[in-house]
């Protein structure tokens, strides 16, 4: 699943052009409400970063109260993701509910003044302003709309229906931004809430006389339902699943409202120019506790699995199983359980079929916006060569082709520097030439490809890879080399012309992604 390209295409973006900073000239702009709010958030961030609390606490407060996840470092993201509590780092319905409860509690004197409706309106207005202030992310907008509908029902003394509120929230978001349906955050947010509402009957059926037992049971069941509802999508998009999210939530969720309350107080104290050492110490202690729980759960053997591949068909079958189980829960007909079992067998059979028919050895010419990498993989080991001196960010490569890597069971990748000569049992790379899995490959782009062969001694090749930097025609290549197949980078500005020339000269032409069988 190439999520990046999928999202860009859904926004109507087909091409990208990277410009040097020196060529961009700022000619002015008219500030809008959102740009003013962005500047205000940056000013608050600077004030927080200039305080004496630990950098980790600073970043956590900025992420939870200002909605900026970019300040969270990569290691923290990995720890929280492996522990199954990555949702804590991003503003979501959980945070909005906590903020709503805090504001509602602070306004309790209005009830004694018989101004409950005023209390509802002030709380809703505060939540709406917070949603606008933090950038109107889909999960925040969804929870704000749902809370608004619940408050409206109380205002007019009507009964609120959770599924109706959820449907209205989705409808309003998609009216103003239809492409939000392709967003991972939108899908995870609505599916999680829908599953929690759908299985809300389970905690009610296990009610105890002791209130603390009910809270404990409700937390465990809600966390378990949320994990099962999102585990397939997480594996589909991120190729990683956490099996210990229930344990992590059990220890972290009770202290999260305390941390957010103290963080809000810390923000007010900081803006006022004051300094409370005791408050800073308590915030750092809670922050260290939350991070310690995430790291501890991550280190538990089997707490998370990486390199998981789930197809779109598998997603559909998985949610069909959840739907059938929910129908059995409400109607108590065992035919639904039997159908769920059949669907589970189909899901396992399809997963086995995909695993058996996916090659564990191969040679692939990939394509991205800036490079044309060549990936050679065998028995879980991958060799990545980005030809013709083009730079490749290894982390960006892994993120961009995570679906391909997970499906083909590649556990380790080695990136080849173009200035090195690599000799292994299966590969010989001496840029711009390479011998990979029986294929003699030449990458053409810069002028160095001309020094490999000459018109008097045409070098025989299996494939020629034309990168985005090549400025020439196909006939110039045939003057120096003998080949029957060429692969053209999809980022090449004249890929259509080169393809037409190659087909006219009776060559096999591939544009962009191309698989080559080992020889």
Report the sheet-strand fraction: 5-15%
**Number of beta strands:** 16
* Major β-sheet profile: 7 strands, mixed
Give the C-alpha Rg. Answer: 28 Å
Counting helices, strands and paired strands, the structural category is alpha/beta
Q: Share of helix among residues?
A: 40-55%
Count of helix runs: 21
Tell me, briefly, the overall form.
globular
Name the strands of the widest sheet in spatial order.
7-8-9-10-12-14-15
Average of per-residue pLDDT values = 84
Given as residue ranges, the uncertain stretches (5+ residues, pLDDT < 50) are: none
End-to-end distance, in Å? 28 Å
Tell me about this structure.
- By secondary structure, the protein is of the alpha/beta class.
- Among the domains are: 90-179, no CATH class; 312-356, no CATH class; 361-516, no CATH class.
- Helices cover 54% and strands 12% of the residues.
- It contains 21 helices and 16 strands.
- The strands form four sheets. A seven-stranded mixed sheet has the order 7-8-9-10-12-14-15, covered by helices on one side. It has a five-stranded mixed sheet with strand order 6-5-4-3-16, with no helix packed on it.
- Helix 14 (256-271) packs antiparallel against helix 15.
- The radius of gyration is 28 Å and the shape is globular.
- It starts with a helix and ends with a strand.
């Amino acid at each position: 699943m190439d999520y990046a390209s999928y999202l860009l295409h859904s926004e109507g973006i087909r091409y990208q052009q990277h410009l040097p900073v020196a060529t961009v000239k700022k000619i002015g702009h008219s500030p809008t409400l959102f740009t003013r709010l962005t500047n205000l958030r940056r000013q608050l961030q600077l004030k927080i970063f200039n305080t004496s609390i630990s950098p980790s606490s600073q970043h956590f407060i900025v992420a939870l109260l200002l909605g900026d996840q970019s300040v969270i470092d990569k290691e923290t993201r990995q720890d929280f993701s492996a522990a199954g509590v990555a949702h804590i780092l991003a503003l979501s319905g959980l945070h909005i509910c906590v903020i709503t409860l805090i504001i509602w509690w602070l306004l309790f004197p209005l009830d004694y003044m018989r101004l409950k409706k005023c209390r509802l309106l002030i709380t809703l207005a505060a939540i709406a302003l917070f949603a606008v202030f933090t950038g109107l992310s889909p999960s925040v907008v969804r929870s704000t709309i749902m809370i608004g509908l619940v408050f409206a029902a109380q205002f007019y003394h009507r009964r609120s229906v959770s599924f109706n509120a959820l449907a209205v929230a989705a409808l309003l978001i998609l009216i103003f931004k239809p492409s939000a349906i392709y967003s991972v955050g939108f899908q995870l947010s609505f599916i999680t809430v829908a599953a929690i509402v759908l299985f809300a009957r389970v905690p009610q059926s296990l009610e105890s006389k002791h209130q603390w037992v009910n809270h404990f049971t409700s937390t465990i069941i809600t966390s378990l339902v949320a994990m099962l509802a999102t585990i397939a999508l997480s594996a589909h998009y991120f190729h990683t699943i956490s099996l210990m999210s229930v344990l992590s939530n059990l220890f972290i969720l009770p202290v999260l409202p305390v941390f957010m309350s103290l963080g809000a107080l810390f923000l007010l104290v900081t803006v006022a120019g004051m300094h409370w050492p005791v408050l800073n110490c308590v915030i750092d202690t809670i922050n260290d506790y939350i991070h310690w729980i995430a790291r501890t759960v991550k280190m538990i053997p089997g707490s998370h699995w990486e390199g998981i591949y789930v197809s779109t068909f598998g997603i559909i079958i998985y949610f069909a199983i959840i739907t059938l189980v929910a129908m059995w829960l409400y109607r108590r007909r065992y035919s639904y359980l039997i159908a769920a079992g059949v669907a589970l067998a189909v899901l396992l059979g399809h997963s086995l079929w995909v695993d058996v028919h996916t090659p564990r050895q191969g040679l692939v010419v990939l394509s991205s916006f800036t490079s044309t990498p060549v990936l050679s993989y065998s028995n879980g080991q991958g060799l990545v060569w980005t030809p013709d001196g083009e730079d490749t960010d290894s982390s960006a490569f892994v993120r961009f082709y995570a679906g391909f890597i997970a499906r083909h069971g590649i556990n380790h990748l080695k990136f080849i520097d173009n200035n090195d000569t690599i000799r292994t049992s299966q590969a010989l790379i001496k840029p711009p030439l390479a011998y990979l899995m029986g294929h003699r490959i030449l990458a053409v782009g810069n002028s160095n490809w001309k020094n490999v062969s000459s018109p008097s001694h045409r070098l025989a090749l299996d494939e020629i890879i034309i990168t985005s930097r090549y400025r020439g025609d196909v006939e110039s290549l045939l003057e120096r080399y003998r080949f029957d197949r060429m692969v053209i980078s999809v980022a090449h500005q004249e890929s259509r012309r080169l393809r037409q020339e190659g087909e006219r000269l009776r060559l096999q032409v591939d544009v962009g992604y191309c698989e080559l069988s080992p020889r």
